[in-house]
Write a structure and sequence with these properties.
By secondary structure, the protein is mainly α. The chain is built from nine helices and two strands. α3 runs antiparallel to α4. The longest helix has 29 residues. It starts with a helix and ends with a helix.
Length: 276
């Protein structure tokens, strides 16, 4: 199968699964994002730890899954804040204790990667149910809007980067981290993200003023670029190109959601600052 065709087919399947999980039912969302959380953390551990510390990797994956479930049921209204916070802290303490009980401590400095994965991947995803539950009522439209902005940013960066970033304006953003990222692509992503914010306002998917829709989209684009570069740092340090191969032609889930791990929390902080 032609590489472009393969990438397009699996890209559309990925989009359909995402929209189904975000729009069909709360449990569809829960199952989808639980899998995403597990797979992304697994990819992060494989990048940084390989086959070392397998038991603690497994323990970290279990803690990450439970953190998401605690967040899901807390924001759904089925669990108390004390259970959500206390459970998360308790799991972290148990994980720290388990690191001490290991027979072989030669790899102990690598334990930092176990904790880094929980902070980088699991915590943002454990908080994601806050965006789909309002007083126990489920709606994934806000997350759909966020992903539309992120995907528009990616498309704009790719298109204008290809058109202008090769010869007309070849200046690179961070060549030591990601040689292909150009300032032309950055501007293109910014324009497309702001346009997506405006369209989402016109269609009613974002219940904000036009000003806040556009500014929030710009903030998401900027932090999304940093999220992409942050993951590239991990991969470059490990000497790999893709975080995994769960989506043929697209790499791993960490490759697909690296921007979202920075962009969506940034959008939430922006909305909190303006009181929404």
């Amino acid at each position: 199968m032609n590489g472009t065709v393969k990438r397009s087919i699996f890209g559309l399947l990925f989009l359909a699964v995402m929209l189904g999980g975000l729009l069909y039912h709360e449990y569809a969302f829960g199952i989808l994002f639980l899998f995403i959380s597990f797979q992304m953390l697994l990819e992060f551990y494989r990048i940084n730890l390989g086959d070392s510390m397998r038991f603690l990797q497994t323990a970290g994956l279990i803690v990450g899954n439970i953190l998401f479930l605690l967040g899901f049921f807390y924001f759904r209204g089925d669990a108390s804040l004390s259970l959500f916070v206390g459970g998360g802290v308790g799991l972290l303490l148990l994980l720290l204790c388990q690191s001490v009980l290991q027979i072989n401590h030669q790899d102990f400095p690598k334990f930092a990667f176990i904790l880094a994965g929980l902070l980088y991947v699991s915590l943002p995803l454990a908080l994601s149910p806050a965006l789909v539950f309002t007083e126990g009522s489920f709606s994934g439209l806000l997350l759909v809007a966020f992903f539309c902005i992120i995907w528009a940013s990616d498309v704009g960066a790719y298109c204008l980067g290809m058109l202008f970033g090769q010869k007309i304006w070849p200046a690179k953003m961070c060549p030591s981290i990601s040689p292909k990222k150009s300032w032309a692509g950055f501007i293109g992503g910014l324009l497309f993200a702001c346009l997506a914010g405006a369209v989402l306002k016109w269609t009613g998917l974002l219940a904000l003023s036009m000003f806040h829709c556009v500014v929030m989209a710009a903030v998401m684009h900027v932090f999304g670029v940093f999220g992409d570069l942050f993951e590239s740092l991990w991969k470059r340090a490990a000497g790999i190109k893709d975080s995994g191969n769960v989506i043929p032609g697209h790499g791993g889930l960490l490759d697909r959601f690296d921007s979202a791990l920075f962009a969506i929390p940034a959008a939430c902080i922006y909305l909190a600052i303006i009181g929404l």
